[in-house]
From TrEMBL:
Family per record: Belongs to the peptidase C1 family.
Gene Ontology molecular-function annotations: cysteine-type peptidase activity
SUPFAM superfamilies listed in its UniProt record: Cysteine proteinases
Domain of life of the organism encoding this protein: Eukaryota
Protein's name in the database: Procathepsin L
GO aspect biological process, one term: proteolysis
Transmembrane region(s): none
Start and end residues of each Peptidase C1A papain C-terminal domain: 3-86
Pfam families, alphabetized: Peptidase_C1 (PF00112)
Species lineage: Eukaryota, Metazoa, Porifera, Demospongiae, Heteroscleromorpha
């Protein structure tokens, strides 16, 4: 069985994005029995309109609304973490 690697938020206050993707990854695994790593960077870059503030903070609930309205979230491989808003 593969494992999700330990993640590092670097100098960015993005714990809210990591907690949101962690919860989504857990639910995805429950539904599919497949491990997948989702993109915290997408939440940093794109969820400001839902109340999040990039490296200045945010909420998991705002992230969930963003993902729901977007119809999903990219994988870490397709949208890798940079540790700053790009």
């Amino acid at each position: 069985m593969s494992k999700i690697q330990v993640k590092n938020q670097a100098g960015c206050a993005s714990s809210w994005a990591f907690s949101a993707t962690g919860a989504l990854e857990g639910q995805y695994y429950r539904a599919t029995r497949k491990l997948e790593s989702f993109s915290e960077q997408q939440l940093l870059d794109c969820s400001e309109g839902y109340g999040n503030q990039g490296c200045e903070g945010g909420l998991s609930t705002n992230s969930f609304r963003y993902v729901q309205h977007q119809g999903g979230i990219c994988t870490e491989g397709n949208y890798p973490y940079l540790g700053y808003v790009s």
